[in-house]
């Protein structure tokens, strides 16, 4: 029971940390960064917040899909034990 509770708490904590990490990273690919720098040189008021949000959105969707597939695969291969009759 304790092992299951610990595993569930660890999985929840890991999921929360991994879902928050892309927001803090504000990562851009090399081509996107070059495009933004070129646009900034042309215009001083160029806002990159939308580009960063788009990159984070595109990055998180595959991870959510892989997590859902992994969850359903795990549930299918590890059925719940049947309760013993008294």
Automatic annotation (TrEMBL):
The chain crosses the membrane at residues 54-74. Keywords: Membrane, Signal, Transmembrane, Transmembrane helix. Residues 1-27 form the signal peptide. It comes from the Bacteria. This is Uncharacterized protein. It comes from Hymenobacter ruricola.
